[in-house]
Amino acid sequence: MTFRFRTFGAAALLAGSLHALPAFAETTLNVVMQAPLRSLDPILSTAQIVRTHGFMVFDTLLGMDAKYNPQPQMADYAVSADKMTYTFTLRDGLKWHDGTPVTAADCVASLKRWAANDGAGRTMMGSVASIEATSDKVLVVKLAKPFGQVLELLAKPSPVPPFMMPKRLAETPAGQQVTEMVGSGPFKFVAAQYRPGDQAVYVKNTDYKPRAEPMSWTAGGKTVNVDKVVWKAMPDMQTSINALQSGDVDLIEQVTIDLLPLLKANDEIKTGAINALGSQVTGRFNHRLPPFDNPKVRQAAMYALDQEQLMQTAIGDSQYYKLCASVYGCDVPLASDAGSEYLKGSAKERMAKAKELLKASGYDGTPVLMMQPTDLTILSTQPIVAAERLREAGFKVDVAAMDWATLQSRKNSTQPVAQGGWNMLFTYWGVSGIWNPTVHALLDGSGAETAWSGWPKSARVEELRAAFLTAPTLDEQKTIAREIQQIAYDEGFYFNAGEFQSVAAWTAKLKNLQPGPLTLFWGVSK
């Protein structure tokens, strides 16, 4: 009886212990992203952090693989022999996060919202006769005139991908943020745990059915191997590194290069580039306000600025950056040396040229308001260095320190500086978002209110961008792209400050981190 009693007691304790355990051990990735997430609508923002958030929650009709080829994602497609009709058929099993089925009507509304807010999308719509749903699963795009980049634009991963969302959200009035993060992507956004600028939480979408093809960038099967992803904001890099080494953080998306030696000595930490293409730093001029409404003043500024100095200050180690003239990225098919005369010569020679041009321009001493994001490490130094170079050339410069979210909002202002406007800012663009004239937002020469901030105007660039869309061969595309690049330098669309490679750091517990045009959270396991 004593034996039986003790056995029963042990069994009861064991049963109680098992009952207290969760049904499974939840796998959570804790991540420090390159910037805090303060805005959620991925159609109304070109910020990289918002785009990455978009790919967590939403999906696209097509994805782009590592060779820049459009591939089916939410939909398979067929193109008519004359390339004037594109038919997209949604794959089976697609559901929105609220449980309702994805329909072609949802996708039609989403494409229209995207095109109204993306420069490349607006360009495409100028050649579109109609977009309509012919059934619950089929939508058809008919062109009014030839347009050679339909598939490429529907697959583009940056800067504003054509994310699909329910019709009720896609019909949100122009300029207004969508009110819910309801997509059909591999993760669900946990709104109750979102703290703007501090934390964002995503959980695995158990209804998501990945494609069967191997994943490649945003194409192929998006297989999620973790239960939860938590983005944490840690503006101080040393704090982030301490958290990674202690195990409180699994991944830092972007580590400052000078602190890499601290991590390389730790066998439990891995470092490397998970975005193989890198990013281009860009110094954007506001063409609408003095003094940069004068092309000669813009040219003077471009000669005053120096790629090497800006990259050395921001990155430091030359193995992590490249200097080239190409506005499309240093290693893409359209890369060329057009406009390189604005970048060549010693710092002393360039400064002498800048002073000469500024004097000839009639510059009257109007101050330059330079915006500086203090909470984005990779961009916090360039405005300071650039301001000193411009002052040496003869400019008056005021540096306005602000957080990244404020800069993102202020850059859209067309008002005078005294009323919240600006003259110059630095940002950076993933090469996957600038690799040709159609997707490159900074090469929009329309001068339109809807163009990306800075608003340069060039009828010739717009003619060339239109010609690029129908150029039948790569050689012809290269010729057109080269002329656009030369004009962009001559007209001072922006200063190409060089290309850098982001370096991530992660715990050795993470396996199969996937390379891509942005940080991908599918494929990875812990």
Automatic annotation (TrEMBL):
<feature type="domain" description="Solute-binding protein family 5">
    <location>
        <begin position="70"/>
        <end position="439"/>
    </location>
</feature>
<protein>
    <submittedName>
        <fullName>ABC transporter substrate-binding protein</fullName>
    </submittedName>
</protein>
<comment type="similarity">
    <text>Belongs to the bacterial solute-binding protein 5 family.</text>
</comment>
<dbReference type="InterPro" id="IPR030678">
    <property type="entry name" value="Peptide/Ni-bd"/>
</dbReference>
<dbReference type="InterPro" id="IPR039424">
    <property type="entry name" value="SBP_5"/>
</dbReference>
<feature type="signal peptide">
    <location>
        <begin position="1"/>
        <end position="25"/>
    </location>
</feature>
<dbReference type="InterPro" id="IPR000914">
    <property type="entry name" value="SBP_5_dom"/>
</dbReference>
<dbReference type="GO" id="GO:1904680">
    <property type="term" value="F:peptide transmembrane transporter activity"/>
</dbReference>
<dbReference type="Pfam" id="PF00496">
    <property type="entry name" value="SBP_bac_5"/>
</dbReference>
<dbReference type="GO" id="GO:0030288">
    <property type="term" value="C:outer membrane-bounded periplasmic space"/>
</dbReference>
<dbReference type="GO" id="GO:0015833">
    <property type="term" value="P:peptide transport"/>
</dbReference>
<dbReference type="GO" id="GO:0043190">
    <property type="term" value="C:ATP-binding cassette (ABC) transporter complex"/>
</dbReference>
<keyword id="KW-0732">Signal</keyword>
<dbReference type="InterPro" id="IPR023765">
    <property type="entry name" value="SBP_5_CS"/>
</dbReference>
